[in-house]
Amino acid sequence: MNIIVCNIGSSSFKFQLLDMTDEKQLARGYTERVGKDDAIITYWVDGDKVFESVMSVPSHREAVQHALDFLTSSDYAVLDNLQQLDGVGFKTIQAG
Question: What confidence category does residue 16 fall into, taking pLDDT thresholds of 50, 70 and 90?
């Protein structure tokens, strides 16, 4: 059972992909400085850092899409497709 847990902050997006059957973290990542031209994206698979880049990430939509593409379509993909996700959890923070 694969669960992705996401945390969306005012200028960040973080996630963990968990295999709950084995209680194992398959992948994790974060995007810092969402909304900036110099956002920092970092991903890990099985505890190893496999991707780090600085690029434009105009909004949280692009940050989430980049992470989903990484999980399903990159050289380090851990899912064949999004249908392999059994659940999604979100934590959001509303400032103010």
Answer: very high
What span, in angstroms and rounded, lies between the C-alpha atoms of 37 and 57? 6
Phi, psi of 33 (to 5 degrees): 70, 40
State the Cα–Cα distance between residues 72 and 5, nearest whole angstrom: 16
Query: Residue 63 class from Cβ within 10 Å (0-12 exposed, 13-18 middle, 19+ buried)?
Result: buried
Superfamily for domain range 2-92:
ATPase, nucleotide binding domain (3.30.420.40)
The per-residue pLDDT for 90 is 87
Sketch the domain layout of the chain as residue ranges: 2-92
- For the segment 67-84, what is each residue's pLDDT rounded down to a tens digit? 999 999 999 999 999 999
Query: Using CA atoms, how far apart are residues 79 and 71, in angstroms rounded to an integer?
Result: 6
